[in-house]
Amino acid sequence: QVQLVESGGGLVQAGDSLRLSCATSGRTFGRYGMGWFRQAPGKEREFVATISWISGRTYYADSVKDRFTISRDTAKNTVSLQMNSLKPEDTAVYYCAARTNPYSSSVPSEYAFWGQGTQVTVSS
Questions:
Q1: DSSP SS3 for 25
Q2: Cross-strand pairs, 122
Q3: 50: buried, middle or exposed (CB in 10 Å: 19+, 13-18, 0-12)?
Q4: Is residue 68 within 8 Å of residue 89, measured between CB atoms?
Q5: Backbone angles phi and psi of 109, in degrees to 5
Q6: CA gap 94, 73 in Å, rounded
Q7: For residue range 9-52, what is the model confidence (pLDDT) as tens digits?
Q8: Residue 104's closest CA among 70, 66, 64, 65?
Q9: What are phi and psi of 90, to 5 degrees?
Q10: What's residue 29's pLDDT?
Q11: CA 4 to mean position of chain CA atoms
Protein backbone atom coordinates (compact mmCIF):
# COMPACT_ATOMS: atom_id res chain seq x y z
CA GLN A 1 0.00 0.00 0.00
CA VAL A 2 1.16 3.52 -0.77
CA GLN A 3 0.50 6.55 1.40
CA LEU A 4 0.79 10.14 0.23
CA VAL A 5 0.52 13.12 2.58
CA GLU A 6 0.53 16.69 1.28
CA SER A 7 1.51 19.76 3.26
CA GLY A 8 2.36 23.40 2.71
CA GLY A 9 -0.94 24.88 1.59
CA GLY A 10 -2.29 28.13 2.94
CA LEU A 11 -3.69 31.58 2.28
CA VAL A 12 -1.47 33.97 0.33
CA GLN A 13 -1.79 37.12 -1.75
CA ALA A 14 -1.46 37.31 -5.51
CA GLY A 15 2.19 37.33 -6.50
CA ASP A 16 3.33 35.37 -3.46
CA SER A 17 4.94 31.94 -3.43
CA LEU A 18 4.16 28.64 -1.74
CA ARG A 19 5.91 25.30 -1.63
CA LEU A 20 3.85 22.14 -1.39
CA SER A 21 5.39 18.88 -0.25
CA CYS A 22 4.22 15.30 -0.63
CA ALA A 23 5.60 12.70 1.74
CA THR A 24 5.46 9.17 0.39
CA SER A 25 5.60 5.90 2.27
CA GLY A 26 4.65 2.29 1.99
CA ARG A 27 6.63 1.16 -1.04
CA THR A 28 9.77 2.08 -2.91
CA PHE A 29 9.20 4.69 -5.56
CA GLY A 30 11.84 3.72 -8.02
CA ARG A 31 9.25 2.79 -10.64
CA TYR A 32 6.56 5.42 -10.02
CA GLY A 33 5.53 8.49 -11.90
CA MET A 34 4.35 11.33 -9.67
CA GLY A 35 1.96 14.19 -10.30
CA TRP A 36 0.25 17.19 -8.82
CA PHE A 37 -3.38 17.93 -9.62
CA ARG A 38 -5.82 20.53 -8.36
CA GLN A 39 -9.53 20.95 -8.03
CA ALA A 40 -11.36 24.23 -7.59
CA PRO A 41 -14.95 24.40 -6.28
CA GLY A 42 -17.43 23.37 -8.96
CA LYS A 43 -14.70 22.29 -11.37
CA GLU A 44 -13.17 19.01 -12.39
CA ARG A 45 -9.79 17.89 -11.13
CA GLU A 46 -7.11 19.19 -13.47
CA PHE A 47 -3.50 18.37 -14.17
CA VAL A 48 -0.80 20.70 -12.83
CA ALA A 49 2.59 18.99 -13.15
CA THR A 50 4.19 15.56 -13.37
CA ILE A 51 7.63 14.05 -12.92
CA SER A 52 9.23 10.72 -13.67
CA TRP A 53 10.75 9.33 -10.47
CA ILE A 54 13.61 7.66 -12.36
CA SER A 55 14.61 10.27 -14.92
CA GLY A 56 13.29 13.43 -13.28
CA ARG A 57 11.73 14.48 -16.55
CA THR A 58 8.92 17.01 -15.97
CA TYR A 59 5.82 18.23 -17.76
CA TYR A 60 3.51 21.11 -16.89
CA ALA A 61 0.06 22.41 -17.66
CA ASP A 62 0.23 25.53 -19.80
CA SER A 63 -1.50 27.54 -17.08
CA VAL A 64 1.39 27.00 -14.62
CA LYS A 65 4.37 26.69 -16.94
CA ASP A 66 7.23 29.02 -15.99
CA ARG A 67 5.61 29.69 -12.58
CA PHE A 68 5.52 26.25 -10.95
CA THR A 69 8.34 23.72 -10.55
CA ILE A 70 7.92 20.07 -9.63
CA SER A 71 10.85 18.19 -8.12
CA ARG A 72 11.59 15.00 -6.24
CA ASP A 73 14.03 13.98 -3.55
CA THR A 74 14.86 10.34 -4.09
CA ALA A 75 16.65 10.06 -0.74
CA LYS A 76 13.71 11.39 1.27
CA ASN A 77 10.98 9.98 -0.98
CA THR A 78 9.29 13.35 -1.26
CA VAL A 79 7.84 15.31 -4.16
CA SER A 80 7.53 19.08 -4.06
CA LEU A 81 5.73 21.75 -6.01
CA GLN A 82 7.24 25.23 -5.88
CA MET A 83 4.59 27.76 -6.84
CA ASN A 84 5.67 31.30 -7.70
CA SER A 85 3.74 34.33 -8.90
CA LEU A 86 0.52 32.88 -7.62
CA LYS A 87 -2.76 34.09 -9.07
CA PRO A 88 -6.31 33.99 -7.68
CA GLU A 89 -7.17 31.40 -10.34
CA ASP A 90 -4.62 29.06 -8.73
CA THR A 91 -6.98 28.73 -5.75
CA ALA A 92 -7.86 25.05 -5.35
CA VAL A 93 -7.26 21.91 -3.34
CA TYR A 94 -3.96 20.47 -4.53
CA TYR A 95 -3.45 16.71 -4.64
CA CYS A 96 -0.31 14.62 -4.89
CA ALA A 97 -0.66 11.38 -6.86
CA ALA A 98 1.44 8.34 -7.76
CA ARG A 99 1.13 5.92 -10.65
CA THR A 100 2.59 2.43 -10.91
CA ASN A 101 4.56 3.32 -14.00
CA PRO A 102 7.93 5.08 -14.11
CA TYR A 103 6.83 7.63 -16.65
CA SER A 104 5.00 10.85 -16.04
CA SER A 105 1.39 11.40 -17.07
CA SER A 106 -1.14 14.22 -17.12
CA VAL A 107 -4.17 11.90 -16.98
CA PRO A 108 -5.75 11.59 -13.51
CA SER A 109 -7.21 8.14 -14.20
CA GLU A 110 -3.70 6.76 -14.71
CA TYR A 111 -2.82 7.44 -11.07
CA ALA A 112 -3.61 4.73 -8.54
CA PHE A 113 -2.72 6.53 -5.32
CA TRP A 114 -3.82 9.94 -4.06
CA GLY A 115 -3.19 12.11 -1.04
CA GLN A 116 -5.92 13.82 0.94
CA GLY A 117 -5.20 17.24 -0.57
CA THR A 118 -4.07 20.59 0.75
CA GLN A 119 -5.92 23.88 0.30
CA VAL A 120 -4.26 26.76 -1.51
CA THR A 121 -6.09 30.08 -1.50
CA VAL A 122 -4.76 33.11 -3.36
CA SER A 123 -6.41 36.45 -2.64
CA SER A 124 -6.36 39.34 -5.09
A1: strand
A2: 12
A3: buried
A4: no
A5: -65, -15
A6: 19
A7: 999 999 999 999 999 887 665 668 899 999 999 999 999 999 99
A8: 70
A9: -80, -5
A10: 55
A11: 11
